[in-house]
């Protein structure tokens, strides 16, 4: 019987693990589909306090994990494939193994959203990617396309100019969700070509088993054009990883956990931390802060119950 199981090993899960471990709760952390969370897919993090020169995202989360392990947190590879939160102790299935726990912290984050084209799915890993950091290297001197109008799209486009001969940034509107600083940076980069009011209608070429181009449609003029592309990066946001909790914890229509004050969820003893609930800030530092809050609430909850 565990005191607390933490689902997810991004900033939220790792910080919750540090606090819970230091409170002697011996947390079990289920690493999840994307160990290290979103930071493991990024490059330099310049806005996490304490690192004046910035720090590599993967190094930052790895350091958090080591810090938690130093205090006795146990990490297990694998994802949560089922959960029974109908009564306590809660039962959580990590890749086929059921574990029991008095409390649960859901810090499972949110995964990349795809444009939703049939050929996009078929070409993932063959020119279609959602992670510039992971795959940018493969497109040295090649033609790259990024889809999206938020900070992720700007960040990925800027990063990909290190590799590509050109980076086309396709966005369905001519207004951007991206912050002004990121947008200005992308606009100032002469390798980035903005293509606005435009959607991607198809990706080629499944027959060749590799991305060779895309079909674009200008939403203002209705004009359809084909464009040669070697690397296609979707940077259009994320979907919360809450599928196994559907019908068990209150979720909003997009699948984000509905917070009930502090780190509480609709189920007593189940707490949330990070992007799985936060669709507003979604920063490494806010996720870490949320992990801290969740662990402190777990500690008080267990203490109140006399554990
Ligand atoms: P986001 O802000 O939600 O932006 C998603 C973008 O994708 C929007 O421009 C949206 O278009 C577009 N989009 C969504 N679905 C689409 C579809 N099916 N087809 C085409 N376009 C689609 O997501 P994000 O950029 O991932 O950012 C998420 C959060 O993380 C934000 O709060 C952001 O500030 C933060 N972030 C910060 C940094 C940084 O500071 N360095 C870096 C990355 C992310 P519409 O605008 O038309 O809806």
What does this structure look like?
The chain has seven helices and 19 strands. The protein has 307 residues and is an alpha/beta fold. The protein folds into two domains: 178 residues, FAD/NAD(P)-binding domain; 121 residues, FAD/NAD(P)-binding domain. The strands form five sheets. Strands 1, 2, 5, 6, 7, 8 and 19 form a seven-stranded mixed beta sheet that branches. Strands 10-17-11-12-13 form a five-stranded parallel beta sheet. Strands 14-15-16 form a three-stranded antiparallel beta sheet. Strand 7 and strand 8 form a beta hairpin. Helix 1 packs parallel to helix 2, helix 1 packs parallel to helix 7 and helix 5 runs parallel beside helix 6. The model has no long low-confidence stretch (mean pLDDT 95). The site of NADP nicotinamide-adenine-dinucleotide phosphate has 17 residues, from helix 5.
Distance between the termini: 12 Å
User: Structurally, how many domains make up the residues?
Assistant: 2
What's the average pLDDT? 95
**Tally of DSSP β-strands:** 19
What top-tier CATH class of the largest domain fits best?
Answer: Alpha Beta
- How much of the sequence lies in strands comes to 25-35%
From the structure provided, what is the oligomeric state, counting identical versus distinct chains? single chain
Structural class: alpha/beta
Percent of residues in helices: 10-25%
Give start-end ranges of low-pLDDT stretches: none
Q: What profile does the largest beta sheet have?
A: 7 strands, mixed
What is the third-level CATH name, the topology of the largest domain? Answer: FAD/NAD(P)-binding domain
């Amino acid at each position: 019987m565990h005191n607390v199981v933490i689902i997810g090993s991004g900033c939220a899960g790792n910080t919750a693990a540090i606090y819970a471990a230091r409170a002697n709760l011996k947390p079990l952390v289920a690493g999840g589909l994307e160990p290290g969370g979103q930071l493991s897919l990024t490059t330099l993090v310049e806005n996490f306090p304490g690192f004046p020169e910035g720090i590599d995202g993967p190094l930052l989360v790895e350091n958090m994990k080591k810090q938690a392990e130093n205090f006795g947190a146990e990490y297990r590879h694998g994802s949560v494939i089922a959960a029974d939160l109908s009564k306590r102790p809660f039962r959580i299935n990590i890749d086929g193994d059921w574990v029991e726990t008095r409390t649960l912290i859901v810090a499972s984050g949110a995964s990349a959203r795809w444009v939703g084209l049939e050929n996009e799915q078929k070409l993932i890993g063959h020119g279609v990617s959602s992670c510039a950091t992971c795959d940018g290297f493969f497109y040295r001197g090649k033609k790259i396309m990024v889809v999206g109008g938020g900070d992720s799209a700007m960040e990925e486009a800027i990063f990909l100019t290190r590799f590509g001969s050109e980076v086309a940034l396709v966005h369905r509107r001519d207004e951007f969700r991206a912050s002004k600083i990121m947008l200005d940076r992308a606009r100032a980069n002469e390798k980035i070509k903005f293509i606005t009011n435009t959607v991607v209608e198809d990706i080629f070429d499944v027959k060749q088993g590799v991305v060779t181009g895309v079909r674009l449609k200008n939403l203002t003029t209705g004009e359809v054009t084909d464009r040669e592309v070697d690397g296609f990066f979707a940077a259009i946001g994320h979907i919360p990883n809450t599928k196994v909790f559907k019908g068990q914890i209150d979720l909003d229509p997009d699948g984000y956990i509905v917070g009930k004050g502090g780190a509480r969820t609709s189920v007593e003893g189940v707490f949330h931390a990070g992007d799985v609930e936060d669709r507003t800030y979604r920063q490494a530092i806010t996720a870490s802060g949320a992990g801290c809050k969740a662990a402190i609430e777990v500690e008080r909850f267990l203490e109140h119950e006399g554990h």
